[in-house]
Amino acid sequence: MQRYWLIFAQTVTVALGLLFIILTFRPHWVTGSSVDADLKGADRHEDMLLARTQANATNGLPNGYLAALQRASRSVVSIEAVPLQNTAAQALSEQLQHDPSFNALLDRPSGAQEFTPATNVGTGIIFNAEGYILTNQHVVEGARALKVSLADGRVFNAQVQAVDPESDLAVLRIAATKLPVIPLMPRTAPLQVGELVFAVGYPFGFAQTTTMGIVSGINRNQLGVSVFEDFIQTDAAIHPGNSGGPLLNPMGELVGVNTAIYSENGASLGIGFAIPAHEAWAIAHALMEQGYVTRGWLGIEPQDIWPLAQSATESEGVVVARVLKGGPAAVAGLEVGDVIVRLGDAPVKNTADLLRQVAQVPPDTRINMTVVRGNKPRTIAVTIQARPRPR
């Protein structure tokens, strides 16, 4: 009896040992999964982690945003722009590099690379899986060559697809497909002052960097950055090189495109500005699909009323300083000195507000405008036309 028990114990021990070895070195023999299945399993795990992250972020749990930010960061790229040089100077520099007498004078080998053009650095956002990248126009303006580095380490030459100077946005394209597209914040969740946000980019050409802050303000305008301004203000640290990068919420969703900072020396003072995501998204797709942005146009030279206002009750509205001959406003009967106080059902606060509202009206749309003329309000119907494209 004791002999049988010893045999049974030895058999169980050997079986358990074999099972341990298999589970350690060949687990897929037991689970039946392949390498591809393992990778899919990892993706499923990441999805589960992201779902848990979003739940944690919603509940305010510490570090609940990590997985969401990691996923969003895959869609953030580095952009290096080599600026245009004087053609004659560039040709001379290349000729001198291969001149033996000149190289001997400098005591360096013939052909040595001495004339290295400076590069501008910026950040971009993948918004379409077929190689389309959104960034600021000022990042790529005047560049003779563009290099885009993806978060996965791949590097591509890029071409400018189209630019929109009036919003300081540009679309680039690289020869790559199936790229990770950054998620967009839903319209059902408007951004609020005090919300947590993250700025992702490549400041000063460093590796990808993430900083954290809050939404300090919304609807910021009259900054002189672009024609159409409706910025998000944030205290998340934004530096040179961050331009064109995303401002994200804790869900890893795009809420804005970092564009400008207020600074006396180029460093962050905690006052940064981002173009709202849905506005930037619409412009990006217009540039991708048709190469330009269609906006409404009134045909006036507007002026803020507040410098001319005699009381606080007159501080909102826009004075018509000039009416363009043959433009929509002239055809409708608008006159110099009229004060525009309402467009459709929306009040008009200032020049930036009027420009933004008119731009959003589809061309050939007839809309009522409330103006004050001679201290008396009147309604004027105007047919908005397409804004002339900048050259």
From TrEMBL:
Keywords: Hydrolase, Protease
SMART domains attached to this UniProt entry: PDZ
Pfam family, one: Trypsin_2
GO biological process entries: proteolysis
PROSITE patterns (alphabetical): PDZ
Keyword Nucleotidyltransferase: no
PANTHER family found in the cross-reference section: PEPTIDASE S12, PROTEASE DO-LIKE 8, CHLOROPLASTIC
Name of protein: Trypsin-like peptidase domain-containing protein
Lineage: Bacteria, Pseudomonadati, Pseudomonadota, Betaproteobacteria, Burkholderiales
